[in-house]
Task: inverse folding
């Protein structure tokens, strides 16, 4: 049995990641592939518990260092319990966010912590996706979409428009630095149009 492919979606809040991750998983399943759709923070029972600590409450609830540890703990559990077993079973894993979110969000909040993020990733996670779809879009439009949902999980969205602009720049830079696995996709288009481009990129993946 050959190992499955690992595909992640990244981008600012409200850019359409969850929608596109779901549409891609549906399209792959319709082709007869075994697919596991998952998300971060979360994606395993333990990581979903950690998620609640991260996305609810006041923006200054955790120090930036503690927050990085919580995201990394959640990811480690997600990897052990969900992602690795699915890849080993030959499934395509589609994840709404992964390690690039920590690089960009926690790096944008406090730039000097990027080295800590990278060290923890190397020590505790140590793997990268085969393909990362970075959905790029104007933060004002994305924020309007996101806040329209008000889910009680708005701790990060509450950090404001300037922060979202730094995040967009961070994701664009990251895509430029990892051309081997990252593809930048314009998210400010109709859902179906974005989905068609995402499908083409995912189908081009070997295996
Ligand atoms: P994210 O996971 O990046 O936060 P979502 O997929 O949850 O984004 O989308 C945020 C909101 O925008 C949802 O209400 C969703 O239905 C809507 N949405 C997603 N994609 C589009 C699109 N291409 N055009 C307009 N609205 C969209
Ligand atoms: P998510 O549920 O994907 O939010 P959205 O659907 O609004 O994009 O993620 C929750 C928040 O957690 C989101 O604002 C991004 C943030 N986040 C980080 O700051 N670092 C991380 O490593 C991850 C995975 C998410």
Result:
């Amino acid at each position: 049995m050959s190992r499955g492919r690992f595909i992640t979606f990244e981008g600012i809040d409200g850019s359409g990641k969850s929608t596109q991750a779901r549409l891609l998983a549906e399209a792959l399943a319709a082709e007869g592939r075994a697919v596991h759709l998952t998300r971060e923070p979360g994606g395993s029972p333990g990581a979903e518990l950690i998620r609640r600590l991260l996305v609810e409450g006041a923006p200054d609830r955790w120090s930036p260092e503690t927050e990085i540890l919580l995201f990394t703990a959640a990811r480690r559990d997600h990897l052990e319990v969900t992602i690795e077993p699915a890849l080993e079973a030959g499934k395509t894993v589609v994840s709404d966010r992964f390690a690039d979110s920590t690089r960009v969000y926690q790096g944008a909040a406090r730039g000097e912590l990027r080295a800590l993020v990278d060290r923890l990733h190397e020590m505790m996670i140590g793997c990268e996706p085969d393909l990362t779809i970075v959905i790029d879009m104007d933060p004002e439009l994305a924020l309007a979409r996101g806040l329209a949902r008000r889910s009680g999980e708005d701790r990060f969205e509450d950090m404001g428009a300037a922060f979202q602009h730094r995040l967009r720049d961070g994701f664009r830079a990251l895509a430029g630095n990892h051309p081997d696995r990252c593809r930048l996709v314009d998210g400010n288009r109709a859902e179906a149009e974005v989905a068609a481009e995402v499908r083409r990129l995912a189908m081009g993946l070997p295996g």
In short: The first strand starts at residue 6 and ends at 11. The chain has a mean pLDDT of 93.
